[in-house]
Amino acid sequence: MYLAGKWVGSDRTTEVLNPQDNTVITTVPAATAEDMLFAIEEAKKGAKKAANLPVHLRMTIINKAADYIEDRSEAYAVTISQEGSKTIKEARNEVKRCIQTLRLSAEEARRINGETIPFDQSENGENRVGYFYRFPIGIIGAITPFNDPLNLVAHKVGPAIASGNAIIVKPATVTPLSALLLAKAFDHAGLPEKILSVVTGNGRDVGDVLVTHPDVRMISFTGGLETGESIARKAGLKKLSMELGSNSPAIVLKDADIKQAVEACVSGAYSAAGQNCIGVQRIFIEEEAYADFKSSFLQKTAMYKVGDKRLETTDMGPLINEKEAIRVEKWVNEAVEMGAELLIGGKRDGAFYSPTVLENVPENCTIAREEIFGPVVLLYPVSDLQAAIEKSNDVNFGLHAGIFTKDIEKAFSAIHQLNVGGIMINDSGDYRIDGMPFGGVKGSGLGREGVKFAIQDMTEPKVVSFKLQNVGTQL
Fold first, then answer.
1. What pLDDT shows up at residue 472?
2. What's the pLDDT at 475?
3. Whose CA is closest to 359, among 377, 373, 345?
4. How far apart (Å, rounded) are the C-alpha atoms in residues 428 and 328?
5. Smallest Cα–Cα separation from 148: which of 95, 216, 213, 212?
6. What distance lies between CA 149 and its chain's CA centroid?
7. Which residues pair with 241 in a beta bridge?
8. How far apart are CA 445 and CA 441, in angstroms?
9. What's the predicted TM-score (pTM) here?
10. Distance CA 256, CA 238 (A)
11. Region for 363 from its dihedrals, namely left if φ exceeds 0, alpha if ψ lies in -120 to 50, beta otherwise
12. Which of 83, 94, 243, 370 is labelled catalytic?
């Protein structure tokens, strides 16, 4: 593991498995609480180094790390695909996005600006001039998920370094290799020691230490709602940024381009085997368009190729492990037992679960209320846009949504009424660029990621006021 700028081994190890066949790729250290405490103590020194690192050097280091990854992009993509669920095509796209995230971080480092303040807006502010500037908060703890094991780490590390902070990453236990490769890129780029650590192992051994330590001033977490709530209870008085997933809706109105809607929703539902926080889970289709959409959607789903994630022709690989596939299978079976109709899919083979479509899903079953995080879609006919909006909002999530329509009035109606962090018009909710604010409302989390917006969370404003004599013209 990368401990305060040094590569450190351990007698305690954790196996990293390929979920496709459960073969062992390698082992990584299983860190202890003492390892994490050491990382935090070293990060206190690293935070001072990071804060004093000139902006031009921060930019140079981040860009060099991006160059390093770009020169080795295929090796990075192979690692992502091996340890996770993504096909090689999906993994290559993640590497491209990681490079973009880092380059955005380098650019945003030069834009951490303050503002002058007109103190004489107040009667007691006359003869005062001043401004505010933003300063780094210190040590950031980052806890990252398995579904984007490189780019989601970059979304925390890039902004942290750009804004002059130290950062300790606890990557997902099942996908630590991509995070270590990111650390390798920063090590090669000349990042001073103690600014970055990547601590591998089980969350139960090191997670609470990172979350509760008073010197860690912010926790940036991407993962599930239950874990997020647990972190919030334990963290104490510190900043929290959390992206906690969703069961994202898509709305298809009768005037929509059905072919476009089907293509976008199929891709949005099944990419990364459905293990995507903004993946399409619930689709509300206006009744007049329901039969046409349903027929086309099932036809497109049937064409989806599931298999060896190493092959260029594969559309979807396995879930992250068999345990998750069994959970998805259980939720689907529960829905069917409660009256849902299985239109296609519903078959499991080890960690593989076939693309699945359900309709007539009862509102009180688990799959209708929670995030499936698997390749399962629920279809609902609705009478009109207002009914679709009400059903979309009737869950404890609100990350992204999509609406397909040619009517701009209806699009704006959905924009203002849907309780989500982002809405995509004539696209599924499964759309994101790395420069936009990304996050949700309700159980979908707190704060926003996206480089510029993460930097705002990772810094604080400091006000400076000068009291002067005889400023300006005397009246």
1. 58
2. 44
3. 377
4. 22
5. 95
6. 10
7. 220
8. 6
9. 0.95
10. 46
11. alpha
12. 243
* Nearest Cα residue to 363 out of 385, 323, 335, 333: 335
pLDDT tens, 264-311?
999 999 999 999 999 999 999 999 999 999 999 999 999 999 999 999
DSSP designation for 438: B
Compute the Cα dihedral for 307, 310, 311, 313 and give only its sign: positive
3-state secondary structure 172-218: CCCCCHHHHHHHHHHHHCCCCCCCEEECCCCHHHHHHHHHHCCCEEE
Supply 68's token pair.
Answer: 């390093």
Structure-block tokens of residue 286: 């206006």
DSSP 53: S
H or E, element range at 380: strand 376-382
Q: Is 98 a catalytic residue?
A: no
Q: Which two tokens stand for residue 191?
A: 């990042």
Identify the active-site residue in 265, 277, 370, 371.
Answer: 277
Q: Which residue in the block uniquely carries the two structure tokens 């650590």?
A: 197
Cα–Cα nearest to 158, from 188, 125, 185, 137: 185
Show the domains of the chain with their CATH numbers: 2-245+440-463 (3.40.605.10), 249-425 (3.40.309.10)
**Residue 243 is a catalytic residue:** yes
pLDDT score recorded for residue 469: 84
Q: How far apart are the first and last CA of the chain?
A: 67
CB-neighbour burial class of residue 334 (10 A; exposed 0-12, middle 13-18, buried 19+): middle
Residue for token pair 């109709």: 341
Q: Which of 159, 196, 151, 170 is nearest to 59 (CA)?
A: 159
User: d(Cα 403, Cα 384) in Å, to the nearest integer?
Assistant: 13
Residue 245: exposure state from Cβ atoms within 10 A (0-12, 13-18, ≥19)? buried
